[in-house]
Automatic annotation (TrEMBL):
Name of the protein: Cytochrome c biogenesis protein ResB
Listed Pfam families: ResB
Keywords of this entry: Cytochrome c-type biogenesis, Membrane, Transmembrane, Transmembrane helix
InterPro entries for this protein: Cyt_c_bgen_Ccs1/CcsB/ResB, ResB-like_domain
Organism this protein belongs to: Pelistega suis
A single Gene Ontology CC term: membrane
Record membrane topology: Multi-pass membrane protein
């Protein structure tokens, strides 16, 4: 019994962890929450899939066995004790009972026995008579069904655990362990390539898998993921995704409804039904329940603009691709043409973000987060800071050394800190999440002016021209204008190559030949001078870039939008400094798309839930019996005497509560009327 209690405690703790900690998420989710060290510790216990962890299943199985053996051992004894009136108790045992009475009655034995029986029946006692010489024993009891509470409570544990095991991966894992199933081989790319040994039959007792379909596709199988391996689960029906439905709130663009319009064909009856499956509205057929689980891209067709961020060119080229496709592109990197492998990983037409925080766009929300718009509170639906910021594209560029970097760019500019900016994200292999550059949008809402300015920074002739234009504006006769040109041109060159950090490193002598290093005593003012020359020269450089685009010159003085232009220039300079560390020579901007949606339905057969419901019913019965039904036992000995009869009685209960004491007091009071005065 102690062993079963310990196991039950372990199961309770593990269940609490599984309830509080979101299950079956990607590895980075847990690393981000706990850190690398604690994730490694927790992963030893499979906290991300705790209900299917081998140790948890073993504990559950041992709990079932232990509690079952306990029931087998004790139920016959309990049932026997329930049926027994314990008429073997003798008068000599009376002194052992704390609740007892002894009296002499003026009524004869027959009258005393008759009145005692009336009292027992009135108070709900069942009784049995036993003659022992001249003495008659009335052995009575009530509430003995209290003992059923212990049986039902323990039986509930067994039944609930069995139901949990039925709905776990244990039935499928048993088939795998027995050698009748093996994982889908790596070389199998299509369903037709999957061998029969990697498929579970349509009559499989329980399973939980995903059906992923693009619009127009039909599937009659689900993909089961168990650990690092995958299997196919055949279904007794087929599902065709006609359309994936997303509806939005007009106020803030948040998703209001996710649903799949599907056609289901029953293989057994041939019946064809059209159903709408959405969140909190599943559909059940042949014991298999279909839930709206998530959604993803089904191979959308994208038109991307390839924007150069290296060299002195700023004209874009366009390419057409599909989500999931891989192609080769050529780009200039450090003056040399290099080949990159472009893989379009994902496309999302909606991205609901909270723009109140500066880092609100650090991570696009996944389906689970966006689904809160459907099932969450009304407050979330009317949050003024929450907006749909539009589509994004996620892609990977792999260089000739097979080094890959993932990128994520939004199609439309977003308003952050009062400025309209494009978010250009990247994630290195060592990063946990995306980091973003903010490229300011120009007057037309595009990136043309920024890209033109970037190209101008990389053009030696335009840099020198901008340095001379700035030097010509300096009116102080004490300053040699040629020195201004040299320093301004050098500041522009260093900044174009390595941003603000490069300027600081140059002044500090990092990577600079000793003969060219700035003397230590003038480094601080030199940093200020170079930054000033950089900014003022860059103002002229921007005007030269605008001339190439056919835009009017800016002077920032007396203009209606002078403050706005100054903010754009500040954002552009910051973005150009960050761009020096951008690991790719190009940026992919999404220009247009043809969205093809894919839905992910979860197919679940869980017969164990009905077993669990039965176990819960047993638990309710058991708790009610244990806490609200009180067992009472009463023994009455009536012995005839010359002038009346002698009555002895004892009452007992498993729990001697205040209620029991009041009942015994009432018993004494009622029988005191029989006592001889």
């Amino acid at each position: 019994m102690r062993f079963a209690i310990y196991l039950l405690m372990i199961v309770c703790i593990a269940s609490a962890v599984g309830t509080l900690l979101e299950q079956n998420r990607e590895e980075i989710f847990y690393i981000d929450r706990f850190g690398t060290y604690w994730y490694q510790v927790f992963s030893k216990f499979s906290v991300s899939q705790i209900y299917n962890a081998p140790w948890f299943l073993v504990v559950m199985a041992f709990l079932v066995v232990s509690t079952t053996l306990c029931l087998i051992r004790n139920v016959p004894k309990i049932l026997k004790d329930m049926r027994s009136f314990k008429e073997y108790v003798r008068q000599t045992s009376l002194r052992a009972f704390p609740h007892k009475i002894e009296m002499q009655s003026a009524y004869n034995a027959e009258q005393s026995v008759a009145m005692s029986k009336v009292w027992l029946k009135k108070n709900g006692y069942a009784f049995k008579e036993k003659q022992d010489g001249e003495t008659l024993l009335l052995a009575a009891k009530k509430g003995s069904s209290n003992r059923l509470g212990y049986i039902f409570a323990h039986l509930a544990i067994v039944v609930i655990c069995v139901g949990g095991l039925l709905d776990s991966e244990l039935p499928n894992r048993l088939q795998i362990w027995l050698g009748s199933k093996s994982p889908i081989p790596m070389e199998a790319r299509f369903v037709s390539d999957v061998p029969e040994i990697s498929k579970f039959g349509a009559n499989n007792i329980s399973f939980r898998g995903n059906i992923a379909m693009s619009e127009g596709e039909t599937a009659n199988y689900a993909l089961l993921a168990m650990g690092e391996n995958s299997y196919l689960q055949q279904l007794p029906f087929s599902v065709k995704l006609n359309k994936f439905i997303i509806e939005y709130y007009q106020s803030n663009g948040m998703p209001k409804r996710f649903a799949s319009d599907v056609t289901i064909t029953d293989f057994e009856t041939g019946k064809v039904e059209n159903k709408i499956i959405e969140v909190n509205h599943p559909y059940e057929i042949h014991g298999v329940t279909l839930y709206q689980s998530s959604f993803n891209d089904g191979g959308s067709k994208l038109k991307l603009a390839v924007l150069p961020v290296q060299g002195d060119k700023f004209s874009a080229t366009e390419l057409n691709t599909d989500v999931g496709d891989t192609m080769e592109i050529k780009a200039q990197m450090a003056g040399n043409e290099r080949t990159y492998r472009l893989t379009v990983n994902d496309f999302r037409p909606i991205n609901v973000e909270n723009l109140a925080a500066a880092d609100g766009l650090a991570k696009p929300k996944d389906f689970q987060a966006q689904i809160l718009a459907v099932t969450g509170s009304a407050a979330a639906k009317h949050n003024e800071n929450v907006h749909n910021v539009g589509p994004l594209v996620r892609y990977t560029l792999t260089d000739e050394r097979n080094q890959s970097v993932e990128y994520q760019n939004y199609m439309l500019p977003v308003q952050l800190d009062g400025r309209l900016v494009y978010l250009i994200g990247m994630k290195l292999p060592t990063d946990e999440g995306f980091s973003y550059m903010r490229i300011p949008a120009d007057e037309k809402g595009g990136m043309d002016e920024f890209l033109s300015l970037r190209a101008a920074f990389n053009n030696p002739e335009m840099r020198l021209r901008a340095a001379r234009a700035y030097a010509a504006k300096v009116e102080d006769p004490r300053i040699d204008k040629e020195n201004i040109v040299v320093l301004a041109n050098r500041a522009l060159e260093i900044f174009a190559r390595s941003g603000f950090k490069g300027l600081d490193d140059y002044v500090d002598g990092v990577g600079v030949p000793e003969a060219e290093r700035v003397p230590e005593n003038i480094r601080a003012p030199m940093k200020t001078i170079l930054r000033d020359y950089l900014i003022f020269s860059a103002i002229d450089l921007r005007n030269f870039a605008r001339q190439q685009l056919g835009l009017p010159e800016l002077n920032y003085v007396g203009q209606v939008d002078a403050e706005k232009q100054a903010q754009w220039f500040d954002s552009a300079i910051r973005a150009l400094s960050d761009l020096a560390f951008y690991p790719a020579p190009v940026v992919m901007q999404l220009r247009s798309f043809e969205h093809i949606q894919a839905s992910v339905l979860q197919a679940t057969r869980s017969p164990g839930k009905f077993v669990v419901y039965l176990g819960c019913l047993f638990l309710i019965i058991g708790v009610f019996q244990m806490f609200y039904v009180r067992e009472r036992r009463l023994w009455l000995w009536v012995k005839p005497e010359a002038q009346g009869s002698e009555i002895k009685a004892a009452m007992t209960s498993l729990k001697r509560t205040l209620d029991f004491q009041r009942e015994f007091d009432q018993f004494k009071q009622d029988f005191s009327e029989l006592e001889r005065k």
